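User: hey, got a sec? need Flavin reductase family protein folded
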Amino acid sequence: MRIDPRKQSKTDNYKLLIGSVLPRPIAFVTSKGPNGAVNAAPFSFFNVLATEPPLVAFSCLRKPGGIMKDTARNIVEHGEFVIHIVDERIVPLVNETAVEFPAEVSEAEQVGFTLVESAVVGVPRLAECKVQMECQLHQHLVLGGSLKEPNSDVLIGEVVQFHVADELIDQGRIDTMKLQPVGRMAGATYSKRGELFDIPRMSYEEWLEKKRNQ
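Assistant: Yep! Here you go:
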């Protein structure tokens, strides 16, 4: 089946994208609102962009009418935020923060997360999360839609401090099985880690040898 995205609705394209790009890691983001309340919200359009400096980014789709969501507005105004990695223990609480709380209400505190002071940025972290990344805004991009009604805000953050639970670190690496990360699928479906397998990357010489032996 061939589908031309220009000939169908934004909603239909959204369904194809979230049903194809799977599983998607979840950025659980805290930011500080205009009245000082700590906003917390999950975003599954999230990934790593660079390693020097360490850059991560997530896309925050706008509300109808091209209105920025609280998280994007807070980050653009204050220039700081914290990204937390979602794991199996906390995903029920993370899901609750997606409720449309009023802008002046701290979702994190309402659902039961514990706020702790960050080391570098002014936005608090969530103690229950095993991996936390304090970020300073590196770049803000407005994408899609039209000048009057953009589709999304892309927030690129430079990680200025990592916080990783001690039990996760194994020879400088994070133990995936101990982290138990959760990803986002289509609709209301989440994914846990499944069977893991390794496929070493071959050198060109190894690839040629393999072909000769086939």
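Quick note: The CA atoms of residues 84 and 129 lie 6 Å apart. Let me know if you need anything else on Flavin reductase family protein.
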